[in-house]
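The following record pairs a protein chain with its ligand, zinc ion.
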Amino acid sequence: MFIEQPPEFVRKLYPGAIWRMDPNEKAVYLTFDDGPIPEVTPWVLELLDKHNIKATFFMVGDNIRKHPDIYQMVVDGGHRIGNHTFNHIRGFEYLSDNYLANTDKANEVMKTDLFRPPHGHMRWGQYFTLKRHYKIVMWDLVTRDYSKKLRGPQVLANVMRYARNGSIITFHDSLKSWNNGNLQYALPRALDFLKEEGYEFKLL
Ligand SMILES: [Zn+2]
């Protein structure tokens, strides 16, 4: 619960960051973190296409450097891009100048006004500086598809339990989510479930 659906006091740590969209609207907002990579991202794109859904991909700059063609596939698909630093670094472990430099470096290869901090945390100094340049997008529901401790059905259960109006939902187009089979199991079923529940899929 604490992880899947962050409680209010956690959300208040970053005032002005976006955790959830309009709670009165029957819509969800899909996001995918940590790509783009050839092993996973094209599979996600194909599935989204099949459902005619647009999503936001918070990308690691270094992955774009390594896989510019996959980055282009995402852009050409009409999806939105967000900055997730160049090396997927943890804010608490970096001096602010270095953290911000890594973020700037990422934006040289993607150009976006959205930012999501890896691991969901930043120092306040980092946050308030970034907030001047980006919309900071967190999440209302993290599926934990990356977890080695969870199996696909549990990841799907997280979506079924915590998705609600305006949820920003986080999956990962990463090898962690892929190699444990969680993404392949949970994502197609989650899309079917959300559709059946009547949610519209909107783009941030
Ligand atoms: Zn990440």
